[in-house]
Amino acid sequence: MMMIRHFLFTLFLSISFTLSAQEQTAPSTAELENGTIEEQFEYIKKISTNYQEYKVIKLRSLEKLQNNILDSLSGYKSTIQELKVTLQENKTQINDLNQKLSTTKADFDRAVEEKDSFSIFGMLLHKNFYNNLVWGIIILLILTLVISYFRFKKSHQVTAETQQSLEDLREEFELHRRNTLERERKLNRQLVDALNKKDS
């Protein structure tokens, strides 16, 4: 019994060492299944045998590597295609946003212009122009008022002088008329006296 145990123990150890040695010498196929392309090439190099200066690769491993590379390329191509579609969508979106930005900027400029100006008789006037126009009209009215005042004052003075001259002329005329009437009366009296003397 002891011998059987010893035999079983030895058998167990040898099987364990053999399996362990196989795991270390033969790389696992998991590298070929799940590894990166670089890891897959390294795996192919490890499992291939040498013939003179060449490496002999099993056809099954080479086909598996080819399928993995083609799958990776297909995945990359689909990713590139998706990125191209996304890029085109982004370009379209950027163009739309640029167009909206231009429209918004034009609306903003129009709003600022409308804010800084207003419409009079259908004409859009800028506030600065309107202020200058109003102040120009006010200054023109003040200037017209001052000129009118001085003209009125001069006209009033001329009118007063003319009225004074007219009054003086009337007085002179009245004085002349009285003198003329007085002379006429004197002459009439003298005439009447002379006629009376002649008749008498």
What does this structure look like?
Keywords: Coiled coil, Membrane, Signal, Transmembrane, Transmembrane helix. The chain crosses the membrane at residues 133-152. Residues 80-114, 159-198 form a coiled coil. This protein is mostly helical. The protein folds into 2 domains: 25-113; 123-199. It has 5 helices and 4 strands; from the N terminus they run αααββαββα. The protein has helices spanning 2-25, 30-34, 37-47, 59-115, 127-199, and strands at residues 49-51, 54-56, 117-120, 123-126. Helix 3 (37-47) packs antiparallel against helix 4. The chain is rod-shaped. Residues 19-27 have low confidence and may be disordered.
How much beta, percentage-wise? 5-15%
The overall average pLDDT, rounded, is 82
Using the alpha-carbon principal axes, give the shape.
rod-shaped
Count of distinct structural domains: 2
| N-C termini distance | 221 Å
Q: What structural class do you assign from the helix and strand content?
A: mainly alpha
Spatial arrangement of strands, main beta sheet: 1-2
Q: Give me the count of strands.
A: 4
Order of helices and strands: HHHEEHEEH
* C-alpha Rg (nearest Å): 65 Å
Biggest β-sheet strands, sense, barrel: 2 strands, antiparallel
Unreliable residue stretches = 19-27
Number of helices: 5
* Portion of residues within helices: over 70%
Oligomer, anyone?
single chain
Write a short abstract of this structure:
With 200 residues, the protein is mostly helical. The chain has helices at residues 2-25, 30-34, 37-47, 59-115, 127-199, and strands at residues 49-51, 54-56, 117-120, 123-126.
